[in-house]
Design a protein that fits this description.
7 strands; two-stranded antiparallel sheet; 3 helices; five-stranded antiparallel beta sheet; 163 residues; alpha+beta
């Protein structure tokens, strides 16, 4: 009987083709990963906080994709300010960044309608706003995510946000 022998270049070609055709990023889709809110404060409804918040969120949503996926803004004066920040992952498109920003704002307003301090994580972006400054402050957040095997995995994320 004759033997079948594959030459090394052919093997490299087959292995390379298989590896390149496999989508390693199949799980990379934009999903909500978590959120945290300060205690609800009824004084935020219908006052200048809401107006400033709307201005911050509009500013973040309209400028972030034109600013390399990162933008921070403030609204108000002196001790009556709101601070906002949006950051998108560096490997997503400007359109995906814009979409993620919009989704994170919807989540923030839906889940935390009366909170003065909100953090929202998505796969592709991170939104934060607060009535207290956080620019240049290092903080640690805990975030639980549900993996595909049905068990909880915990990720502790240390964020350094600086000017």
């Amino acid at each position: 009987m004759g033997s079948f022998h594959l030459k090394p270049p052919f093997i490299v070609f087959i292995v390379s083709t298989l590896l390149l055709s496999y989508n390693f990023c199949h799980a990379d889709r934009n999903v909500e990963r978590g959120w945290t809110c300060s205690e609800p404060d009824n004084s935020t409804v219908g006052n200048s906080f809401q107006t400033k918040l709307n201005n911050i969120l509009y500013s973040l949503a309209s400028i972030v994709s034109h600013n390399s996926g990162f933008y921070k803004a403030t609204a108000g004066k002196d001790f009556n300010e709101i601070y906002g920040l949006i950051q998108c992952r560096g490997d997503i498109s400007a359109q995906d960044c814009t979409n993620c920003t919009g989704e994170s704002i919807k989540v923030a307003l839906h889940r935390c309608p009366e909170s003065e301090s909100v953090v929202v994580w998505f796969t592709w972006c991170f939104l934060r706003y607060s009535d207290e400054t956080f620019f240049g402050v290092s903080e640690q957040y805990g975030l639980g995510t549900f993996d595909t095997n049905g068990s909880w995995a915990h990720l502790h994320l240390r964020l350094q946000i600086s000017l």
